[in-house]
Every structure is written in structure tokens, then in C-alpha cells.
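Database export, one record per block. Field names are fixed; values are copied verbatim from the stored entry.
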Amino acid sequence: MANPALLTAADPVSILFVDPFADSHLPMLRRHFEVTAVPSEEQARRALRTFQPTLVITELTLPEGDGVSLCRESKAFASNAPSVLALTAMPERVPEALKAGCDAVLMKPFAPNLLHARIGRLLRLRASAAKERARSNDLAQRIRRAINGTNLVFDDASCPSCERGGIVAFDAASHRRMWYACLACSKVWMGPDRAAHAAE
């Protein structure tokens, strides 16, 4: 169970949860946030027009629609775009979501505490980025978009397929292994946790 202190925020937080199988996560989330749950892309689009959520959580493969398009549309807000957390059991869809601007990816299946921890981290990063924006007008030039979320970019590592640098680590596969994606050729693979090795 996640620490409730990690799930709270100074400002009201609203979540748009787009997944026909979201029901098991809703009771816990609704203890801390205002949550609107919808099963399809079209309903999510209507909800985005009705209110601007703080966070969009979307399954990438929806029975009616596509979560990648929803990532892109969520990030199209001119100011204060919501953070986007993508959920998927299909790693091959992750590069599309990263290119569409999602801030974090969580591979299915996952334990509820992982979802709560990821939400808490995204909210803390969002609050931190808002403070930075208030202090500096050139934040976008200094911080790469992929690092604004929980994704990590490794410029010194190259893709095993196309050999280009700048691979993205987007989720923990196990204690010491990570999921990686190459945005150049869309290859997705599992490998050692580079951040853990760098800390040793």
C-alpha cells in the first residue's frame, strides 16, 4: 500500500482514468483525488474538453479508440498540459506513447502500490517543474521533455538494433532490470538497470 502522504498535493488533483478495467484501482484513488473513469477514447476526449485534469492515466490499447492518440491530445493544451501515465501489456506500443509525450509508462500487470507510487512521483515532478517555470523562462531549453516524467534518457547508451544513442528507460522490469525503448527505430528490450549500476 502506498503512503498516503505521497499521494497528496497542495492543489486539488483531478485524474482522468481511461481504461475499461480501471474499477479495481478506483476506490483507493478516490480516497485522495477527484477521479473520472471512462472506458473509451471518445469519452476521454469529451472529458478533456469538459475539464482539464491534472493527470491522465490511459491504457494504450482501448476497445474503442487508441491511448496513444489520447496522449498526444492531452499534451496539445497550450498551457498547463496534464501529466500522462500510459499503461500497457504490449511493450511494442511504448515508443509511440513516448513520442506522443507521455510522462511515464507502467507495464501490466502491476501491483496497486506501483501505480500509487508512480502517481505520487509524477505529481511531485509536476510541482517541481511548476516552481522551476516560475523561476526561469528557459526551462524547456534546459530540461529534455522525457526527463520531466519518470522516463530516463541515457545519451551515452546505444540501441542494440540501430546503434543510435539516447535510449529511454521507462519502467522497472524487476529489481535490477529495466525496460528500454529506442525512439529512432522503435525497438523495445529489457536490460540491466543502468541507473542502479551507475550508483554503485
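Remark 1: The CA atoms of residues 55 and 83 lie 5 Å apart.
Remark 2: The first helix runs from residue 26 to 30.
End of record.
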